[in-house]
Write a structure and sequence with these properties.
Blueprint: H1 13-21, H2 28-43, E1 57-60, E2 63-66, H3 68-90
Antiparallel strand pairs: 1-2
């Protein structure tokens, strides 16, 4: 299993936690990325970027779900948002 923010072991988990603990205000774009991540893991909603890309999904117990490549893409998008916000936060 890969490291995920859902399991509190994401690639940039320490930076994310520091910003959250400081009450840092994220941009709307980053909030959307985090919301998409939350909705997938908490509610099972397939992210919009994967809905028409069969190479990122597979049949799951309750319908379509992300495969390994899809999960990597979801994590990459959150990493990208955290990197962007970390630059803003570090100023």
């Amino acid at each position: 299993m890969m490291n995920t923010y859902w399991a509190h072991s994401g690639k940039l988990q320490a930076q994310y936690d520091e910003m959250m603990n400081a009450g840092f205000k994220f941009t709307k774009a980053s909030e959307r990325a985090f919301h998409t991540y939350y909705r997938y893991f908490n509610d099972g909603d397939l992210p919009g970027f994967a809905r028409s890309k069969w190479e990122l999904t597979k049949s799951g117990r309750w319908g379509r779900e992300l495969n390994a490549r899809g999960l990597e893409e979801l994590e990459r998008r959150v990493d990208e948002a955290i990197e962007h916000e970390w630059k803003r936060y570090s100023k």
